[in-house]
């Protein structure tokens, strides 16, 4: 191998090489620092909340907090039993999820599996706008529009809600049992029409009974758990729909086409092939939706009635309740004056509980997705 | 004097295998992706102001070899090189190498036309600006000369401020060539530059290569054996990371020494 | 297909379309009242009292015209005032037992009339602007007219239930007296007295409020929202974009990056009220960035809140830039740094901007994080140099405030809806801008 003239300009002097390496390293370090600060903010948040929550544990202990329903932070002696508040949070969250999950997943299936491309593009902004509307607007709507409606026509609204939730839920039950039982029957030829009809009749009867029960309910105040649950459900819908739709879209065409090629109908394909394949994404969608409902402040503060009590009977959605977020928002205005007291620190302890719930939700959803990835290899 | 290949129905345009000084020399040169050896122990010398074609089936390491010449593989974290590779007598992988100067010494043209979403002028002026040329007059002259060398000047001289993405595919590729020429390189590395173009645009690029060979060393990776035969003076055939055969194009396409080469150019595999 | 599967198929399809319909219906049910009633703050039938208020408080409108209208109001209401005077004069002549109840009824009636029409002739000017004027809006005037015509009476006759509210025509209370004809007269002549006219109040957005939102507009709230939003974006964008650049262009996959990503996901899931508490504990009580609540503290808190959104959007935008741009730049001798700054970031800019605009909408609408850090319910429009130390009225917080804690929630529904409309319009405009940007980005990358 022979070489021609050596061109010195391709050589780098030691000094400029060092300088170049130094600037690159500095630049990387700077960017890494900025990123670390952005990500470290969450540690800062946890740190500050823990710092201000700790005095409460020292002052009052946590036994009363978790076991008593007596919430009189301004009384003498003060009582810090938050059990009813936890229950209120759970009640509105679970009822909101009961409304939002079936509706959200059914809507996502409709968007992803049924609507043509153009119609889907037209519906997508609906989801985006629902997600963009500020929570205080939802709260205002709950307080000014929904609450008076509930007060005067509460039972009809409740009945309507049972219909909205019950039809997809009951339809799902009929479909599932029908197809499960039908699998055996199909081998002996002839689908079990009578069986499906019977199932549908039973579900319909149950629905009618529930509606009848609803129409007997006495409504004292429009600001109650049901109001909040409905609005929270609407607020959780866009999260659930968009994440669930992404999960459904991620299911490959080949899987669907394979099912159709075997002669399966759209409902069968969706229920037996697409939904199970997208299960992890759907669970993530539900968790994210629930997180949105748990962390919401303004709606529950404005429209839940803010009564720290466990409703009687325990499932009475027409009773006012109180949640963690609303308690923090509502009580801090007064507790702010007495920084250092248990009244002030108990709110930070509540915030810590909220943080823990959010953290657990996050970890669970990441685990679900991670396991899915691992299963796929 | 044009001669015919017994295997390919193509007229050789390259006539001149007369040796000129060596511009790029590889000696026992290998490239690894992690543990996988993509180029194995290649040894060859590419000559100044000649067109060298690199052919071979997909995944044979030809693109990897091309991108090793101007150290584009540095972008891939798991990639490393071993053995000797010299450009103008300078060791490319030496720690003393000025990579920036090296890359400016070698223009590169990619498979798909990839002009920046900027104006035509800004695309061509990108390289000189990187080098620190900011004087308006010098830039203008450089842009014009580069576009003229890439045979694009007449088509775009009135619309230099237009977005480059508005050009047709063939024009975009010639713009990319102009952009590469603007750093006044000694070598032009072309990675399947016509694979995304229609036959007419391909022909214009090939004409351009024919013009540029007077002033530049050109290394072109191509899938298309007719193209290799048409435009190149030397051809290297890679197979599974190994340099199977290297020599004057006329020899490779009319009397290949290796069995594999013959099988490939006659279309028995690849 | 057997009848059974066909039945399932139909049921399934109906359920899915139904769910989608529920979602669309929810949006419409939410937006339509907000837009319709929100417009009521801007376009309404204003009475002569409105025009007097506008002239006296805001120095707008034609004074001579106003004087003519007030004279007409005087003329139209004169017979009514005469009846009142006659009744009052006759009061001492009645037997004492009747006198007490009649005097009480008269006081109640006079109070209702003051609310409807403003101070009665010959009375001194009240101190608060809200009692200096009668009803300024025709829709409210009709409600108040109803209260003049009907008295509220509680019926406790059934001991088993709560007392029932009943409405009794006031005419019956004054039957046989000089005031009996007042009620049919007033009912007939309210329009002539108050002279409602279609009014556009576009300055709702640029007027400060007078007397705790009884009159005037929402400028301080709008300006406060603007300050907080811009502040949050200015603080969050550099960090967000640089973090995204690091994660996409320079970070190598590893434990460290995975930890960073986990932190960011957690940050995105922190409830907004916790951000508020953190802002209070960190920025105000510990770092003392300002003596108490301030726009700065609020912006810092909101910046943390929108940081994950911005990072995620910027990451997505940067990843969407084709690898070949980077390769081309590197092959021309650019350093990785210069390649990113000169080619990748400009190509990703519309996408990054989309994320920024969407997070602006989020910051503008958030309430919980600013309750303890930046928002006050009453205040003047903040000047720009006060943002470092002063709190400000904010649209989102004041919607809560005037809807729940205001002393006359029912009287100022139109202001509440106007505020909600302003906030929704602001957020929707920002989101619309984001959608347009996204479309432009898609076009630009396609070429």
Could you please describe the fold and organization of this structure?
- Chain A is mainly α.
- In chain A, 77% of the residues lie in helices and 1% in strands.
- Chain A contains 13 helices and two strands, in the order H-H-E-E-H-H-H-H-H-H-H-H-H-H-H.
- In chain A, strands 1-2 form a two-stranded antiparallel ribbon.
- In chain A, a hairpin with a 6-residue loop joins strand 1 and strand 2.
- In chain A, helix 5 packs antiparallel against helix 6 and helix 12 runs antiparallel to helix 13.
- The N terminus of chain A is likely disordered.
- Chain B has 270 residues and is an alpha/beta fold.
- Chain B has ten helices and ten strands.
- Chain B has a six-stranded mixed beta sheet with strand order 6-7-8-3-9-10, with helices on both faces. Chain B has a four-stranded antiparallel beta sheet with strand order 2-1-4-5, covered by helices on one side.
- In chain B, a hairpin with a 2-residue loop joins strand 9 and strand 10.
- In chain B, helix 3 crosses helix 4 and helix 6 runs parallel beside helix 7.
- Chain B is globular and about 55 Å long.
- Chain B starts with 21 loop residues before the first strand and ends in a 5-residue tail after the last helix.
- Chain C folds into two domains: 150 residues, no CATH class; 228 residues, MetI-like (MetI-like fold, Orthogonal Bundle).
- Chain C has 17 helices and six strands.
- The two termini of chain C are 48 Å apart.
- The mean pLDDT of chain C is 90.
- Chains A and B meet through helix 1 of A and strand 1, strand 4 and helix 2 of B.
């Amino acid at each position: 191998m022979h070489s021609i003239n050596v061109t010195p300009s391709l050589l780098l002097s030691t000094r400029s090489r060092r300088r170049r390496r130094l600037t690159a390293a500095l630049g990387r370090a700077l960017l890494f620092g900025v990123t670390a600060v952005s990500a470290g903010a969450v540690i800062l948040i946890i740190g500050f909340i823990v710092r201000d929550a700790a005095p409460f544990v020292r002052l009052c202990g946590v036994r009363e907090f978790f076991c008593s329903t007596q919430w009189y932070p301004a009384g003498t002696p003060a009582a810090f039993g938050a059990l009813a508040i936890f229950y209120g949070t759970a009640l509105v969250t679970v009822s909101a999820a009961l409304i939002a999950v079936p509706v959200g997943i059914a809507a996502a299936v409709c968007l992803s599996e049924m609507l043509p491309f153009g119609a889907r593009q037209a519906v997508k902004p609906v989801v985006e706008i629902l997600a963009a509307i500020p929570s205080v607007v939802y709260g205002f709507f709950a307080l000014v529009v929904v609450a008076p409606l509930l007060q005067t026509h509460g039972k009809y609204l409740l009945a309507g809600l049972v219909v909205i939730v019950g039809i997809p839920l009951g339809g799902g039950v009929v479909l599932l049992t029908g197809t499960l039982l039908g699998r055996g029957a199909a081998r002996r030829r002839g689908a079990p029409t009578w069986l499906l009809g019977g199932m549908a009749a039973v579900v319909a009867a149950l629905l009618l009974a529930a509606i009848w029960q609803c129409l007997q309910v006495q409504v004292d105040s429009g600001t109650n758990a049901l109001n909040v649950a409905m609005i929270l459900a609407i607020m959780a819908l866009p999260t659930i729909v968009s994440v669930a739709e992404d999960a459904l879209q991620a299911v490959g065409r080949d899987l669907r086409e394979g099912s159709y090629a075997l002669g399966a109908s759209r409902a069968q394909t969706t229920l037996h092939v697409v939904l199970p394949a997208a299960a992890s994404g759907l669970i993530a969608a539900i968790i994210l939706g629930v997180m949105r409902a748990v962390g919401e402040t303004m709606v529950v503060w404005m429209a839940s009635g803010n009564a720290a009590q466990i409703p009687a009977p325990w499932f009475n959605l027409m009773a006012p309740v109180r949640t963690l977020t609303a308690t923090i928002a509502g009580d801090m205005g007064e507790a702010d004056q007495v920084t250092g007291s248990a009244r002030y620190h108990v709110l930070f302890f509540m915030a810590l509980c909220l943080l823990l719930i959010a953290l657990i939700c996050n970890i669970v959803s990441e685990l679900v997705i991670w396991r899915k990835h691992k299963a796929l290899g | 004097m044009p001669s015919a290949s017994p295997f390919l129905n193509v007229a050789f345009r390259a006539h001149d295998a007369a040796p000129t000084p060596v511009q790029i020399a590889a000696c026992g040169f290998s490239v690894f992706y992690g543990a996988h050896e993509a180029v194995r122990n290649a040894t060859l010398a590419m000559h100044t102001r000649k067109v060298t074609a690199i052919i071979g089936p997909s995944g044979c390491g030809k693109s990897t070899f091309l991108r090793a010449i101007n150290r584009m593989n540095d972008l891939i974290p798991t990639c490393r090189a071993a053995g000797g590779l010299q450009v103008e007598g300078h060791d490319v992988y030496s720690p003393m190498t000025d990579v920036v100067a090296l890359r400016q010494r070698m223009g590169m043209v990619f498979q798909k036309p990839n002009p920046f979403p900027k104006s035509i002028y800004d695309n061509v002026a990108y390289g000189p600006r990187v080098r620190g040329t900011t004087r308006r007059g010098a830039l203008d002259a450089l842009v014009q000369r580069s576009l003229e060398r890439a045979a694009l000047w007449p088509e775009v001289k009135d619309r230099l401020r237009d977005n480059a993405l508005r050009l047709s595919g063939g024009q975009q590729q010639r713009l990319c060539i102009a952009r590469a020429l603007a750093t006044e390189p000694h070598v032009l590395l072309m990675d399947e530059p016509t694979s995304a173009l229609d036959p007419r645009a391909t022909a214009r690029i090939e004409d351009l290569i024919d013009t540029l060979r007077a002033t530049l060393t050109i290394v072109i990776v191509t899938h298309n054996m007719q193209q290799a035969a048409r435009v190149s003076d030397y051809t290297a055939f890679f197979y599974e990371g190994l340099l199977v055969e290297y020599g004057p194009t006329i020899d490779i396409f009319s009397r290949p020494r290796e069995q594999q080469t013959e099988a490939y150019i006659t279309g028995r595999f690849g | 297909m057997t009848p059974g599967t066909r039945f399932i198929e139909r049921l399934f399809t109906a359920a899915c379309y139904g769910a989608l319909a529920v979602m669309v219906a929810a949006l419409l049910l939410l937006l339509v009242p907000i837009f319709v009633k929100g417009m009521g703050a801007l376009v309404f039938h204003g009475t002569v009292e409105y025009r007097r208020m506008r002239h006296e408080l805001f120095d707008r409108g034609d004074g001579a015209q106003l004087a003519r209208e007030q004279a007409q109001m005087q003329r139209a209401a004169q017979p009514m005032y005469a009846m009142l005077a006659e009744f009052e004069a006759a009061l001492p002549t009645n037997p004492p037992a009747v006198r007490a109840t009649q005097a009480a009824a008269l006081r109640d009636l006079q109070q209702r009339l003051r609310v409807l029409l403003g101070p009665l002739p010959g009375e001194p000017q009240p101190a608060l602007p809200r009692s200096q004027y009668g009803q300024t809006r025709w829709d409210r005037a009709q409600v108040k007219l109803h209260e003049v015509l009907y008295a509220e009476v509680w019926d406790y006759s059934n001991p088993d239930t709560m007392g029932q509210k009943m409405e009794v025509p006031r005419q019956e209370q004054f039957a046989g007296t000089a005031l009996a004809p007042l009620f049919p007269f007033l009912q007939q002549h309210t329009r002539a007295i108050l002279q409602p006219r279609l009014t556009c109040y576009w300055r709702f957005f640029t007027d400060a409020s007078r007397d705790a939102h009884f009159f005037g507009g929402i400028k301080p709230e709008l300006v406060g929202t603007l300050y907080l939003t811009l502040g949050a974006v200015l603080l969050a964008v550099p960090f967000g974009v640089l973090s995204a650049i690091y994660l996409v262009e320079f970070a190598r996959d590893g434990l460290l990056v995975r930890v960073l990503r986990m932190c960011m996901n957690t940050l995105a899931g922190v409830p907004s009220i916790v951000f508020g508490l953190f802002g209070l504990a960190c920025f105000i009580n510990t770092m003392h960035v300002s003596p108490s609540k301030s726009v700065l503290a609020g912006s810092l808190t909101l910046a943390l809140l929108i940081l994950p959104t911005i990072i995620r959007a910027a990451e997505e935008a940067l990843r969407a830039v084709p690898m070949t741009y980077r390769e081309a730049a590197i092959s021309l001798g650019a350093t990785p740094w210069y390649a990113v700054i000169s080619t990748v970031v400009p190509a990703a800019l519309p996408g990054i901007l989309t994320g920024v605009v969407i997070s602006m909408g989020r910051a503008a609408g958030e309430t919980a994080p600013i309750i303890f850090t930046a928002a006050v319910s009453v205040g003047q429009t903040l000047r720009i140099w006060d943002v470092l130390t002063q709190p400000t009225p904010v649209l989102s917080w004041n919607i809560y405030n005037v809807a729940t804690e205001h002393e006359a929630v029912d009287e100022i529904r139109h202001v509440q809806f106007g505020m909600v409309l302003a906030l929704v319009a602001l957020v929707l405009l920002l989101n619309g801008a984001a959608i347009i940007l996204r479309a432009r980005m898609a076009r630009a990358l396609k070429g």
